[in-house]
Structures are given as structure tokens and as C-alpha cells.
Amino acid sequence: MTGPSAHLHGPRYVLGEFEVPHTSIANLSARAAEFKMAPTPGLWGWGAVRRTERSLEAIAAESAAATLRATTSGADAVVLCSTRVPGPSEGHGAFMETFLAESGLGDVPFYGQNMNRCVNLLAAIDTATAFVRAGRHRRVLVVTTDSAAHEDDRMASYALFSDGAASCLVAAEGEVEGGYEILACASAQDPGRLAHANEISADLARTVNERLLTPLGMKPGDIAGLMHANIFKPVVVMKERQAGFTPAQLHLDNITRVGHCFAADPLINLVDRAEAGHVEPGRHYLLAAGVPGQRIGVLLRRAAE
After folding, report:
1. Residue 116 buriedness (CB in 10 A; 0-12 / 13-18 / 19+)
2. Which of 47-61, 87-101, 159-173, 174-188 has the lowest mean pLDDT?
3. Both ends of the chain: CA-CA distance in Å?
């Protein structure tokens, strides 16, 4: 597709206002026994999780407003995603009405994208990138927002969940200075293995790597940093190493610090690694995550200073 290049700007995130240790998760021991997991926090990366008593639209609006302040450009569309927008559909209009007002967006077109589970955010960035490159919109705000439905849902067989939201602006070249050029987006899926009971696939990750990197003459080793999902340490290390990445390309600190914030993890890791000085101008970074039967990746290049 020809058209303007797309850039990612102003990544921001909001975590639940209450930080609680993993030991406060009432059913953690029972769930660990159910999943046949040794109660060894250091092995899995059990640390703190963040819980919110605010609404999904409120934390989404806070993150979105932070991105808009950082980019000082406004947005002419928004893609909002969540694994759990409360139903039934009769409430969705009020949800968006509150979000648009509290974020300061006002009357802009909005698009909901909610079926990709914990790769929702990456699917939304892909959609926003397509809008920009096609010339449909020039500045698209992307937002993801999620919280655990019940406190008993804080632990799964692959992660401890935190509540939070994350956002960024996908804009045409020249709209905002700096940021990250979006070089490519790619996805891969196995329609027969999308059910929750299946494992995350390293094969799909390798396919996404090939689709992203091979046309540019790159290999996984050319990526300066992988912004992955904050699932349990042994799982993410095994799957990403099978995909071709090295331990030096991973960032495991946030698994213990905040746990798995649904689809927001890759953007959270990008923000934190940039603030720590680990994201350098001119180098390549990959936002990527997988769920059973699907993997999505977004290849970025940090703008030169």
C-alpha cells in the first residue's frame, strides 16, 4: 500500500490505583495447585498486581488524555479495545459517551476492536496504521482498557492480572515530531487452535518475524528490544526464545512489578524501557504478543534525535 508513512507517538499508560502483593490474592494457592505450579514466586515472577475501583472508561480516558497532552496534536479518530467492555450492548453508547467526554476527544469517529483478546492493542495499532497509510485519517488515537472481572480471576495458568489502560497516537509523517516510525505490522493465526485451552504458539511467532523482517533484510537478532507480554517468566522466555529471540532482547522486570495488564503489556514495556534509557534513536524495536492461535507484531524504528 502506498501513502504516508505512519508513526507511533506519545505512548502512555495508567495502572490500577491499588498496588497489592501477590500474597493478597485469596485463591492463589488453590489456583497454583490446580495448575500444578510450584509455589515459588521467584520462578514465575509473582510480585505485585494493580487493582482499580474505577470504571474501564475512566482509566481509558486518563491514559488517552495523557497521550493527547504529550503529542499536542489532537486526534481525528480513535480505536478503543478491551477484552471486557461490560454488556449488554445497550450500555456501550454510554460507555463511549463518557470516554469521549472525559478524554477531551469530543466528536471524533470511534471504532471498537475487542475480539483479539490480549493482542487487542496490537490489532488496534495495525488498524490505525492502515487508516493512516490509506489517507482515511491522519491522527488516530489507540486505547486499550481492561480490569479483572472478579478478584478470583487475578490468576490464570500463564499470568497474574493487573487492571490498567494504555494508549498511543498513530499519525502520518509530519503530524508530530519524534516518536517511532511504524515500519510494518504483521499477524499470523491458526484458526483451528484459537480456543483458550490451546498453548501460545512459537511457530506463529516465527511466521510473524518472517513477515515483518525478511522483506527488510532483517533477522530477529537485529531487534534491539522485544516488548512482549508480561506473562509468567518461564513461559515468555521459552516461547520467545523458540521464536528466535535472546534473553538480552527480553524485559522481564515488569512481570514482577505489575504482572499482566491484558493487551497493554507491549506498550507499557516500551514506555518503561524508554524512560530507563534502553530505547535508542535509529534502532529497531518490536511490539509483539500472542494468544492461543494468534500472534501480532508491530515493528518500530526510534526516530533519530
Report:
1. buried
2. 87-101
3. 28
Domains of the chain: 6-172 (3.40.47.10), 180-302 (3.40.47.10)
Supply the DSSP string of 167-233, one letter for each residue: EEEEEETTSSSSSEEEEEEEEEE-GGG-STTSPPPHHHHHHHHHHHHGGGT--GGG-SEEE-----H
Across the chain, mean pLDDT equals: 96
pLDDT at residue 24, rounded to an integer: 94
Residue with cell 493465526: 189
Q: Do 137 and 131 touch, CB atoms closer than 8 A?
A: yes
Residue ranges with strand state E in the chain: 6-15, 18-21, 48-51, 77-81, 110-112, 139-146, 164-172, 180-189, 225-227, 284-291, 294-302
Q: How far is CA 54 from the centre of its chain?
A: 20
pLDDT in tens, 208-232: 999 999 999 999 999 999 999 999 9
Asked whether the predicted pLDDT for residue 32 surpasses 60, the reply is yes
Determine if the peptide bond prior to 88 is cis (ω within 30°): yes
Over residues 67-86, the pLDDT tens digits come to: 999 999 899 999 999 998 87
* pTM of the shown model: 0.97
189, three cell numbers = 493465526
Quick one: cell of 25?
490474592
Residue 26 DSSP code: T
Q: 144 - beta bridge partners?
A: 81, 166
